[in-house]
Amino acid sequence: MRRCILFLLAILLLAGCQHHRRHREGQQPAQAHAPIGPRQVTIQYLGHTCFLITSSLGLNILTDPFNPSVLSYPVKPGSVPADIIFVTHEDETANFTDLASGSPVILRSSMASGVNRANGVLIRGVRTSSESFSSSTKLNIAYIWAMDGIRFCDLGAIEDAVTPTEAINIGHVDVLFLPVGGPQDFTDEKRKITVDRLQPKVIIPMMYSTAYSSKVPLRGLGEWLSRQSHVVRVPNQFILKPKELPDEPTVFVPAVR
C-alpha cells in the first residue's frame, strides 16, 4: 500500500512539472510571433476625382466613382473592388456607385457629415461652405480618415477656401486630394489658402482636364503645376509609407494610365 501511494505521488509530481514547463513556455502570446506586414497604402488613380486607396490589410476605399458614359476613362462598371465608397457631391462625375464591385458601405450627402465608422475605419465628414454668392449651393462633403499611419483628406468639389473652423474640424493632414482644374469658383488663391491652412505633406491633384474628360469643362493641370515648388511624377498606381513622406509639401502627379 505504501508503495502504491509513493508511486501515485511521483506521477502527480511529474505531471505538475510538465504543466509548469508548458505554462512557462506559453507565457508569450502566439500573436507576437505572427508576421507583421509593412505599413503602407497603395493609391491608384482611376480618373477625375476617383481614386482607389488600399490599406496593407487589403481594405479598399473608392472615392467619387464616375459614370463611364460621362467621363471616358477606361474603367468598366462593376470592375473596381471596394469595401467603402465616399461620395463627396451628387453628380454623375462622382456618384456612380455601380462602378464598384461587391457590397461596399456607401457614405454620401448630408448623412456623411460628422463621425462615422465603416469596416473598422474611423471617418470624419466635414461639410464645406462657400462665402461666394455666385457659387452654387451644391452640397459637398470633405472626408478625413487614416490608414496605416497616414491621414488622408479628400476635399471633393470644394468651391471656397477651407475656413479656419473647417481646418480645425479636418485636423492634421498627411495626404490631401486637391481639385486644381475646377470647380470654377475654386481659384488658385483659394487653393493656396486651403493648402496653407491644412499643411499637407503630399498633395495629389485631381479634377483637371485630360484626354478622357472632354465632356466636362475643366482647366488643365499645367498652369497650376508650374507654380508648385516640389513636384514628383508617379505611376498610375503607387505606394505611400508613413516613414517616407516628404518633409516639404510635395505634389504627387499620378500618370493617367
How would the blueprint of this fold be written?
Elements: H1 2-25, E1 41-47, E2 50-54, E3 60-63, E4 80-81, E5 84-87, E6 100-101, E7 105-108, E8 114-118, E9 121-127, E10 141-147, E11 150-154, H2 164-170, E12 175-179, H3 188-198, E13 202-206, H4 222-225, E14 231-234, E15 237-240, E16 250-254
Parallel strand pairs: 3-5, 4-6, 5-7, 11-12, 12-13, 13-16, 14-16
Antiparallel strand pairs: 1-2, 1-15, 2-3, 8-9, 9-10, 10-11
What is this structure, in a nutshell?
The chain has 257 residues and is α/β, with parallel strands linked by helices. It has four helices and 16 strands.
Question: Which characteristics define this entry?
Answer:
single chain, 257 residues, alpha/beta, Metallo-beta-lactamase, Chain A, 8-stranded mixed beta sheet, globular
What does this structure look like?
By secondary structure, the protein is an alpha/beta fold. The protein is built from 4 helices and 16 strands. It has one domain: Ribonuclease Z/Hydroxyacylglutathione hydrolase-like (Metallo-beta-lactamase, Chain A), CATH 3.60.15. The chain has an 8-stranded mixed beta sheet, with helices on one face. A hairpin with a 5-residue loop joins strand 2 and strand 3. The longest helix has 24 residues. It is globular. About 12% of the residues have low confidence.
